[in-house]
Amino acid sequence: MADDSQRNEAQFEQDEDDFGPNAELLAQIDAAIDAGDSDALNASLEPMHAADIADLIERLAAPRRRTFLELYARQIDGEILSEIDESIREDVIEQMPREVLAEAVREMDSDDVVDLVEDLDQSDRDQILAALDAGDRAAVQQSLAYPEYSAGRLMQSEVVTAPEHWTVGQTIRFLQSEEWLPEQFYHVILVDPRRHATGYVTLGRLLASRHDTMLRDLAEDSFRTISAYAEEGDVAYVFNQYHLISAPVVDRHDRLVGVITIDDAMAILDEEHEEDILRLAGVGDESTINDTVLQTVGQRVPWLGANIVTALAAASVIAIFESAIAQLVALAVLMPIVASMGGNAGTQTLTVAVRGLATRDLSRSNAVRVVRREVTVGLINGAIFGVVMAGITMLWFGDPGLATVIGLAMIVNLLVAALAGILIPLALNKLGADPALASGTFVTMMTDVIGFLAFLGLATAVLL
Amino acid sequence: MADDSQRNEAQFEQDEDDFGPNAELLAQIDAAIDAGDSDALNASLEPMHAADIADLIERLAAPRRRTFLELYARQIDGEILSEIDESIREDVIEQMPREVLAEAVREMDSDDVVDLVEDLDQSDRDQILAALDAGDRAAVQQSLAYPEYSAGRLMQSEVVTAPEHWTVGQTIRFLQSEEWLPEQFYHVILVDPRRHATGYVTLGRLLASRHDTMLRDLAEDSFRTISAYAEEGDVAYVFNQYHLISAPVVDRHDRLVGVITIDDAMAILDEEHEEDILRLAGVGDESTINDTVLQTVGQRVPWLGANIVTALAAASVIAIFESAIAQLVALAVLMPIVASMGGNAGTQTLTVAVRGLATRDLSRSNAVRVVRREVTVGLINGAIFGVVMAGITMLWFGDPGLATVIGLAMIVNLLVAALAGILIPLALNKLGADPALASGTFVTMMTDVIGFLAFLGLATAVLL
């Protein structure tokens, strides 16, 4: 931490504003929208990257987005369309003239078409599929047959393959004569006569080798295939763990059905992180900064509702001790401190556990050791802050009994926080649930209830 | 959310355990360590990927790791060494025989050597640099001259370049005759006579084109250079935003000094997320699941210390109203509910804001609109849960005055939560600080203090 705080942003010369459109260009775009001038708008957007245009569309408020699309919908191509966030893609599609949409879809890789149509209703989906030629349509339909969030949905069917007995020279001649090749490809995948993927050769190796070398002699050690039924999170993990650039996807019979490239794996990694962080905070995991008020309320109310239930549980613990509080109001003053420290310590442990599970650094092989560590840390932190709070209470209220009680309650609650923070996510994970999803609510309920119970209970037993 | 909860892990056929070493292999490894049998250990580890071996080493408890290294240190190569987490790398290096370390370092790409030595002390660093040949040493020293966390530190100096007036045939002949080429490369970077990067050609395009085509006619539209002084987080953003696979790095005079590939950008993206999530939870951002008890206590105590200060601030607000509580103990029962709901709502807003800033979805162009949305959402949620709590309070205590007071306090506190949750991270960002770093503490302090103040203050004014 000390190390990171030394990062001085000023020393870096290229900052956020050097990427994407600059302020002047944004002002021109704004003016063009205001003036309803579609020629000026097109001219301003022309030099922009599709990803930046998509971001611009996402950031517009809904009514202004409609105005924008009235001026610009005819210019939206496949690249822009695949960059637009799912949350507003349907709105955009609706405003695109049918022939423009059809043209855009025809330009897209099969994996991008799958991503586009999988969330549409049947009639919109059929309309888009109808725009494709038969081969592309079959590829998209094959992908859609795999479960949502599977490798089969992520892959593109456009694959460059060669028999393993070919030479480098043969392969290069084949690539030069082939009319159609994917936009981006990094490997030639080796296949046997039954279309089983048996290895791959990087293009760099292909280019650097003598023409008479056999492809099978250039195959990479790092070769591994991905099942079309693998979960997309596992796909992202494999790419990140093994530094893959692209990986062949195979069906149940080990036959090659497609390929996944690292840029898609990177996007999934990004999404999975996003989900974790939003779930930990109790926000719907599809929230974006561009959602409307109603969408936002809809995402957050369920979590606040769950929280009110846990808060009521904590309140009913307090209610048991009403007469103790009436006798010694200092209890009411101090009790939130015990609960709050427990909540914080629990969140710390929980976050480390959820991250560890997500990155697979926390696994069966070290779970027992991690639990033991968290319990020890909980006891040590409990002792430290127990002493601190006992000291503060002594200075504030001059009551040694009260000081002892809060010190003990702090130790109990930080121990409970550690246990809840590590055991609840481990249990949810074991049950096949996402540990990020509901852990926070459970952990805080534990630390609130036990915090109040330990402090008020001990006070009643010792002081009154 | 509804959509995601339907994800049933059972439908995916390849799960976590299909990647990395299986349980049987792990048992063999454990047995070999116990028996002190280095041949058996080598045999078990032989089929494993370097990244999995590194993970295995990380997961061992410190004393067992020493035993492991006594048996295995001679087998550690450059690949394993570059996969090992910074937190334990120094321990590993210390146990490696000097000649094994020297050999490992000579195998590594320059960017991995930079990553290895940048955290070592001067004498260890010198020792490692001495093992390199002069050319590699110069490359590493050039990288180390750039600031920490800059693109210059991330890049590798091994670059494949060609003059833009070359033809495809010339380039392929050059690549075939070149003795040394990087392990992985995906583009040929075009340079002018003064070594300015002017474009790049993907290897796929090179292979698919006629031999007499000029390289400059094959250059990609997506070409963009990265300043060696750019921050690594910005580098990850650019790769993710523009789907880059590799990007040339240039110095202040726009001269080509290296190249960054997407696998490094993906690792940075992963680290930045990790930092955000750990900072939001108030855990030192270098925590790992494998830290010792003392390291863990050291990371967490500062944050718990900050929390105790904010909890004391909240307690002193309660202390002002001691006599009100003594008269009406129900206030003590209900007050944590108001504070807890505020804390939750504040965390929700905060998390969405921190994520939005990290992904650059929240920027100057939509900040005002987002603030307005959060305030509106805060008021609506306040109204919803104000009514809910008023109803519950009425049922529980049968006191319409108390019910009104808690309803109003809830509205006030959820409004404050929204304001604090969005304005505090925006302010920290504006000041050049990381909004994930301290926002949580500030936001909770606001919602605790205002929660107690609004509820107890209103109660005193209205009820007593």
TrEMBL record, chains A, B:
Acts as a magnesium transporter. Pfam families: CBS (PF00571), MgtE (PF01769), MgtE_N (PF03448). The lineage of its organism: Bacteria, Pseudomonadati, Pseudomonadota, Alphaproteobacteria, Rhodobacterales. Keywords: CBS domain, Cell membrane, Magnesium, Membrane, Metal-binding, Transmembrane, Transmembrane helix, Transport. Its main location: membrane. Homodimer. InterPro entries: CBS_dom, CBS_dom_sf, Mg_transptr_MgtE_intracell_dom, MgtE_N_sf, MgtE_transporter, SLC41_membr_dom, SLC41_membr_dom_sf. The chain crosses the membrane at residues 301-321, 327-354, 375-397, 403-428, 440-463. Residues 214-275 form the CBS domain. Belongs to the SLC41A transporter family. Residues 1-21 are annotated as: Disordered. This is Magnesium transporter MgtE. PANTHER family: MAGNESIUM TRANSPORTER MGTE. It is found in: Cell membrane; Membrane. It comes from Paracoccus rhizosphaerae. The gene is mgtE. It is a multi-pass membrane protein.
